Amino acid sequence: MSVYVDTSAFLAVLNADDENHERASSTWTDLVAWRTPLVCSSYVVAEICLYAGSKPAQDGWL
Known about the structure:
The chain is mainly α. It has helices spanning 7-14, 21-33, 42-52, 55-61; strands at 3-4, 38-39. Strands 1-2 form a two-stranded parallel sheet.
């Protein structure tokens, strides 16, 4: 079984101030420990790149 990871999940893992950070980080850790294949679309990668260049990311949360 594989798990699709959307933009909001990636951002929650990366941003300690996100309201879902704890749950997302815990789930991410479990999925990695279980060696679960993680998949996403090129759109998700593009959105992460967009956020990485955004003002909040430049202020240090990403």
